[in-house]
Amino acid sequence: MAASMACQAAVRGLRAASTKQLLVSRNQLARVSPRRWLNLQEYQSKKLMQDNGVTVQRFFVADSASEALEAAKRLKAKEIVLKAQILAGGRGKGVFDSGLKGGVHLTKDPAVVGELAGKMLGFSLTTKQTPKEGVKVKTVMVAEALDISRETYFAILMDRSCNGPVMVGSPQGGVDIEEVAATTPELIFKEVIDIFEGVRDDQALRMAANLGFKGPLERQAADQIKRLYDLFLKVDATQVEVNPLGETPEGQVVCFDAKINFDDNAEFRQKAVFAMDDTAESDPLETEAAKYDLKYIGLDGNIACFVNGAGLAMATCDIIDLHGGKPANFLDLGGGVKENQVYAAFKLLTADPKVEAILVNIFGGIVNCAIIANGITKACRELELKVPLVVRLEDDSALSSSGGRRIFYTPRTQPCSPSSSANEIIQLIVLCCQMWETC
To answer: Which residues are annotated as a binding site for GTP?
Structure first.
């Protein structure tokens, strides 16, 4: 997926989109975050780094209090950090429904680790980034706690304007990098990486120096930077963000926390990495849509949008809102769609209780409308569709047979006939469709 908002601010203009904007009214923008298809827990990212020679804290993973206690004893560390493993940020300030405050705890007593894990595992943790009901914690990470004498920020990400990967760093790490970019932009450093040469020694050393590493630590940091780039290439990443890349009092450079984003198109050669995908915290409808290669994002309205092509999807959402309606989703079939995908899309749409009507808006320039029609027919028969359905199909054959006029179908599904409010929705959708005549 795209780079984080933090990275975008840091490089001040790198064109790595992290959100898509849908125009939902003349004066308002709705920001829709695309689903991050591959979701890795912190310990999984750390394992990838560890396996590729990047220095991280020693750690173990546990899914029971007894395992956590045993892991704490095996570490034989002066201090231990226990972290609840969920995908949302803000764990340290979160609250469990068990009454425990904080999803990150430090202790020097291994016995305490077992007690704390017992109040985390099986309970829901609520943070500023989770749903109101929180997320159930199924795994904890038990790691060696290291003192950090200094924190820096480092990331490697793909940048369209440079046609390749770019290193971004700042000596101000462990904080909101957006704030650093806004208040002290001179502390943001950038190095463009030649995709044929890779990270050169002089680049790595220059970045290490800009991050504030001195003496032997400069060479050590440069080595870590090169190893992170090797990881970036090896796993087909689009971003590796380390915050903080820290320096310990003992003179060690350590990657204390990392976020890795991956190129979805590389799944065919990254089977082991994608097998770690954790979908437990993702929207079930989005997860199901991904199985059929459908791009689905749930919205707050009641009119389901079933379209082909991201541009048409956004335009359809816009025009519905322009006429006073609210789209229930953003569903892009894409080109080369097959009949089973159409059927699966209908199952997704009808599974959303908010949906009161479905608008199918298909342009046949990139898909055969007959495939769409067959899929719709099958879905209507087998799913016993209970909501009004409006279908707009347009391709070359439709234009030639109707003199360029578009045809609209508004079947009233049985046994449930549309209510008065449903009829109003149908009229609204037809009005939206008619506007395409003047576009």
So the answer is: 57, 90-92, 146
361: pLDDT confidence band, cut at 50, 70 and 90? confident
pTM above 0.85, yes or no: no
Q: 150-275: which CATH topology?
A: D-amino Acid Aminotransferase; Chain A, domain 1 (3.30.470)
CB atoms inside a 10 Å sphere around CB 144: 17
Residue 114 above 70 pLDDT?
yes
Measured between alpha carbons, how far is 316 from 351 in angstroms, rounded to an integer? 21
What residues form the annotated binding site for substrate? 308, 365-367
Which residues neighbour 402 within 8 Å (Cβ) at sequence distance 6 or greater? none
> Which residues belong to the annotated binding site?
57, 90-92, 146, 243, 257, 308, 365-367
User: What tokens appear for 35 in the block?
Assistant: 């689903």
CB 104 within 8 A of CB 86: no
What's the pLDDT band for 297 if we cut at 50, 70, 90?
A: confident
Catalytic residue positions, numbered: 153, 241
pLDDT, tens digit, for every residue of 71-86? Answer: 999 999 999 999 999 9
CATH class assigned to 58-144: alpha beta
Instruction: Note the pLDDT tens digit of each residue in 207-245.
Output: 999 999 999 999 999 999 999 999 999 999 999 999 899
DSSP code, position 325 = -
Assigned architecture for domain 284-436: 3-Layer(aba) Sandwich (3.40)
Would you say the C-alpha torsion 19, 20, 21, 24 has a positive or negative sign? negative
